[in-house]
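Technical annex, item 7. During the second reporting period the consortium partners agreed on a shared format for inverse folding records so that results from different sites could be compared directly. Each record opens with the tokenized structure and is followed by the designed sequence. A conforming record, contributed by the partner at site C, is shown below for reference.
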């Protein structure tokens, strides 16, 4: 039997083994970095349940968000559309009723759908779920198991289980025992001081609490006898809530943990190094459910990648940065090796979100900057103006510290790579009708960039929507 015939027979066998109407559970962390998890190599962070899901499923090493900002990222995932295409590209903007969530074709297929915990999509699309139950304790997870227990037992189900962990502000006591300073691994973009370590340790604790509730839900699925017929996905909505992470279109902002457990398709312990985007979640879930694909989807299904991790679904993925506390308009394209970034208003500093401006880590960085004790990598946060264009070799520079377009030694090869990536970004913007409206038409800063406090008389878009 030749290789093509064997592959066809294997594909037919795998397809026949897949449940006709699998259940779906998607766990969404709030501000968790992709590598702050044991499954991605962190040596001491307490994430045994995520680590087990990775051992029993597939770990995606090159998964990316369309936006490193809470509500735009979530709206993008649930519609399968880029933030600027949803009508809710800025933080706190509600998703318009004209946008269709992928729960709609699931419900038409007979699924029960529930969103439990953090919502942050506005009121207009609530009717597209059977149940929206916000809140649930300090981390937003306490209703998860109860909703799973009380679901209709005669229907397949889709559960969007969204935490507020590990979003700021932090308080001790999220888990017992807590992480210690010895557990902390400080990325090179931060100074390695005790204050920064304390800040990171509390952030780790909330990741630990998120992980504990993942374990409770998985245990309940097992008790109900539906664990192995349930597609489980663990993701984050954006990068860690620290300087040069959340809200950026750099690796620390838009790279996400992405762990899938689904035994009918996924081999235990498998790893995928191909590019995948969170915009691909919607068409993938709909395909596996046997429901009708929406014409509005802008992503691609990664079902084939679950069978064959080496399958290449994307040659490039795209991310954007719009208003999140501050005026912004940045776009980025990432390929197998490079990330290209364009900033339409480089005169503005790379200010982190307002809650991170008020963090111990940012206070330390400002103090050490004045003392002349920050490294060049750490000083890049304060650089003004920021680069209008940047190109990073993300395989060798995962924190995007070395802009290959700067300096006098730019090679012809780098120039060609720059032109290629700029062309990709320009084409994507044309295809998705994304244009810079002009700085005067962008939403102005709603918070002071130095203090992180709200500017009197300047309201955030739809401030009544809570994070």
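Designed sequence (site C submission):
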């Amino acid at each position: 039997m030749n290789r093509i015939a064997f592959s066809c027979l294997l594909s037919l066998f795998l397809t026949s083994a897949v449940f006709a109407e699998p259940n779906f559970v998607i766990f969404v962390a709030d501000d968790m970095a992709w590598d702050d998890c044991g499954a991605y190599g962190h040596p001491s962070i307490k994430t045994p349940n995520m680590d087990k899901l990775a051992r029993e499923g597939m770990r995606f090493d090159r998964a990316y968000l369309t936006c490193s900002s809470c509500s735009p990222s979530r709206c993008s995932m649930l519609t399968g559309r880029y933030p600027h295409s949803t009508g809710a590209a800025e933080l706190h903007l509600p998703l318009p009723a004209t946008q269709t969530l992928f729960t709609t074709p699931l419900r038409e297929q007979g699924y029960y759908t529930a969103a439990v915990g953090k919502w942050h999509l506005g009121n207009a699309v609530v009717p597209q779920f059977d149940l929206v139950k916000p809140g649930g304790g300090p981390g937003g997870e306490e209703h998860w198991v109860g909703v799973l227990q009380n679901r209709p037992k005669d229907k397949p189900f889709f559960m969007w289980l969204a935490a507020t962990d590990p979003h700021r502000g932090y308080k001790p006591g999220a888990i017992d025992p807590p992480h210690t300073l010895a557990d902390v691994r400080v990325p090179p973009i931060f100074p390695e001081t005790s204050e920064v370590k304390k800040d990171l340790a509390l952030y780790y604790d909330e990741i630990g609490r998120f992980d504990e509730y993942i374990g409770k839900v998985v245990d309940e699925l097992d008790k109900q006898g539906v664990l192995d017929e349930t597609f489980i996905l663990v993701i984050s909505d954006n990068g860690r809530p620290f300087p040069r992470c959340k809200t950026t279109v750099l690796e620390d902002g838009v790279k996400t943990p992405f762990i899938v457990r689904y035994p009918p398709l996924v081999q235990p312990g498998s790893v995928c190094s191909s590019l995948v985007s969170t915009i691909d979640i919607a068409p993938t879930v709909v395909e596996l459910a046997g429901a009708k694909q929406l014409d509005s989807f802008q992503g691609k299904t990664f079902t084939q990648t679950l069978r064959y991790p080496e399958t290449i679904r994307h040659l490039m993925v795209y991310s954007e940065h719009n208003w999140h506390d501050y005026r912004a308009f940045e776009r980025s394209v990432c390929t197998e090796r490079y990330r290209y970034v364009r900033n339409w208003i480089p005169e503005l500093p790379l200010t982190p979100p307002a809650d991170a401006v008020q963090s111990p880590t940012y206070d330390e960085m400002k103090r050490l900057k004045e003392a002349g004790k920050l490294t060049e990598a750490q000083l890049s946060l304060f650089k003004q103006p920021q680069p209008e264009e940047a190109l990073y070799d993300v395989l060798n520079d995962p924190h995007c510290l070395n802009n290959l377009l700067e300096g006098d030694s730019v090679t012809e090869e780098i120039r060609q790579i720059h032109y290629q990536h700029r062309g990709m970004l320009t084409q994507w913007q044309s295809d998705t009708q994304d244009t810079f409206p002009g700085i005067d038409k962008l939403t102005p800063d709603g918070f002071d960039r130095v203090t992180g406090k709200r500017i009197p008389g300047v309201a955030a878009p739809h401030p009544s929507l809570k994070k």
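The longest strand covers residues 23-29. Residues 335-441 form one domain. All partners now use this format for quarterly exchanges.
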